[in-house]
Amino acid sequence: MPILMFHYVTSRADQLPQDSNNINIVTFENELKALKSQGYTTVSGTDAQKILTTKEKPSDKMIWLTFDDGSVTMYTDIFPLLKKYNMHATNFIITGFVNKAQGGILSWEQIKEMKASGLVDFGSHTVSHPDLGTQTLEAQRTELEQSKADLDKNLNQQTNMICYPAGGYNQNTLSLSTELGYKFGLLDPGRNGAVAQAAKESDGLLTLPRFRMMSSTTAEEMMQMIQPATDYNEKNK
Ligand SMILES: [Zn+2]
């Protein structure tokens, strides 16, 4: 199953970081329309976990939309489109940024409202977004443990998904994640040897690869990226 990695989507580009992660809302809506018209099912985090660990397949064309960093555009721009097309997504939250009400970041109220819709679910992207691979064991423990505790408490859930900031991790990260109750971990393509390809259980559930969606990625390019996974699923029904 392909996993797409997004960050921000907006119609007000001037209010956001001018970087390749900032996707214009028109481009993003075209991507959602392309997925819909080609018959793709966007899965929730829970569905994704089932698909990756069992033979259960809701369809031969499945895709997991993931968003990093808990940008407020998840609420202002992306969520309305998910509702419009009835599509699912997962957002990875930097809990320390939410707790200090950092500008451009979602509030717990917005996060709770999106979760209640059933269209968006949430995992950890640590407390303060460090590259975990460069951190001491104890610093990593704090990042992984506190962010999970905050998400568990605020969303009344057992958080079991971790997205490593900037794709940074080491062996300690993986053992700590397991010890603390994380079962699914997401990488950044191009970091730490991660390759952009469809995710499968044999990748290791704590080291799942993704495809990076950038401001310059068109809907056509996105469909080309995910086509090999779809071909494989259709051949192996
Ligand atoms: Zn991030």
Main attributes?
two-stranded parallel ribbon, 237 residues, alpha/beta, 16% strand, globular, 10 strands, 41% helix, binds zinc ion, 6-stranded parallel beta sheet, TIM Barrel
What does this structure look like?
The protein is of the alpha/beta class and 237 residues long. The chain has a single domain, classed as Glycoside hydrolase/deacetylase (TIM Barrel), CATH 3.20.20. Helix content is 41%, strand content 16%. It has eight helices and ten strands. Strands 1, 4, 5, 6, 7 and 10 form a six-stranded parallel sheet that branches. Strands 2-3 form a two-stranded parallel ribbon. α2 links the parallel β4 (41-42) and β5. α1 runs parallel beside α3 (73-85) and α1 (25-37) runs parallel beside α8. The longest helix is centred in the middle third of the chain and has 19 residues, at 137-155. The chain is globular. It starts with a strand and ends with a helix. It binds zinc ion. Zinc ion is lined by residues 68-69, 125, 129, 165. Zinc ion (ZN) binds next to loops.
